[in-house]
Amino acid sequence: MRLLIADDDPQLVRALRITLSSHGYEVLAAPDGAAAVAMAAKLPPDLVMLDLGMPRLDGVGVIRALRGWTSAPIVVVSGRTGSADKIEALDAGADDYVTKPFQIDELLARLRALARRTPGASESPVVAFGDVRIDLAAKSVTRGQSPVHLTPTEWRMLEFLARSPGALVTRQTLLKEIWSSDQVSDSGYLRLYMSQLRKKLEVDPANPRHLLTESGMGYRLVLEV
Description:
By secondary structure, the protein is α/β, with parallel strands linked by helices.
């Protein structure tokens, strides 16, 4: 099982690498938040362990970045004991919070519990169909060798569909997620942005093969046809 440790304390990382490797984990280490996000995108981890006070990108920023494309369990290991720090990390998407100093046996038990909760292979930050490549970690889209420019709303709509390829996403869900309001009910917005996405990503926008409309229900991203 691949475990990514993100912490700027080299002595702690070295000790954890030795201990966790002896328990069967494949350990990756990143010295700061930005490096952690880049490493996770390149080698998707099964588990993530991170500190909050890291340079370049703090722990909460890393959690939010990872949660944009993966549900791999994240455990925060931090010297911050305040309830506000714990709540912020958990609200951002962390699954557990361990306070430094900690007992290694307790940490191992928590990692085992998290691994049991979400079995299976890691998710990939890249979703592809046709000659289109969607990188959920980098928040970028390419078609062939060329980058595709999307507006923020187009990206949010495509990202939400790409997180669950093949699944039907209802109009109500998209409206709520994109505009963050239960009051928005005009699905004309969705038709407009879907039309724009098809023009940018489909070979034949008038006869889409990947960005499909399910009449009266919502939309679906189909990767293989």
